[in-house]
Amino acid sequence: MNKKIIGIDLGGTTIKFGVLSVDGKLESKWTIDTNIAENGRYIVSDIVKSIQEYLITNSLTTDDIFGIGMGSPGQIDYEKGTVRGAYNLGWAEEQEIKSVIESEIGVPFAIDNDANAAALGEAWIGAGDNKPDVIFITLGTGVGGGVIINRKLVHGSRGAAGEIGHMLVDSKGFTCTCGNVGCLETVASATGIVNLANKYVNDFEETNGLVKLVKEGKASAKEVFDYAKSGDKYGTFIVDEFAKYLGKTCSQLANALNPNYIVIGGGVSAAGEYLLEKVNNVYLEYAFPTVRISTELKLASLGNDAGIIGAASLILK
């Protein structure tokens, strides 16, 4: 089959597009700005226009396109193809996506949550090595995730499966944006690492290095990891705390589902093998013995392309 598939990663700042072969080879990609004016009323029409322009520029017709898949923030009705509650896009109310794009472009369309799309991408072409059972955890401003069992996304009864960031890890911890106390994303996101750094800073004897930066209110997640890698004692302590929470969470996910891989991605994962080793040490301590030797932690490998690749794969399922 020589037909192409199109993947779309819809974000609050940019919309990423990719054209792939049906076996997952990314052949081209481009980006446009996300126009959220007037409650995002122009977003879908901008997507349609951009795809139509690409087809014309590359001498393609809809006969050359197998279908289009999209990952979007918000609450997704993946059967109806609608989105609501994507507040960073201005989409508080339900938005018709599938019906509009299929009508305007004339090819099949599929949509799912953006974290789920990234999970599919990593499972298919990335670190998941096309294995049937993969859990993806994305560490960014918050913590998202996607669960794939027997090559199928787990959506749950109302589409809320994979909310790994809202697993309870510390009942006496920080208040989460969801209203609960002690969710994983309050300690294992970019924001969460800074939360931890602020929490313990007055108990630490050091006065320079990361401690000084935190007290000045200038520390970011990247700086915490950079200081830790350089041997800073406070930085190391904070990263160890972070790894404790994430490692234990990974062990519980693995104990419950025993996937082939748990893949860790997102901006925080840029800390690389240094981060993975610390998380893995905690994971191995708490994982069930059989799980310990059959579920492996890995770093994501697709970077910013995971979303468009996974979105494209939606149309193949």
TrEMBL record:
The lineage of its organism: Bacteria, Bacillati, Bacillota, Bacilli, Bacillales. Pfam families: ROK. This is Glucokinase. It comes from Gemelliphila palaticanis. Keywords: ATP-binding, Kinase, Nucleotide-binding, Transferase. Belongs to the ROK (NagC/XylR) family. Its EC number is 2.7.1.2. It comes from the Bacteria. GO terms for molecular function: glucokinase activity.
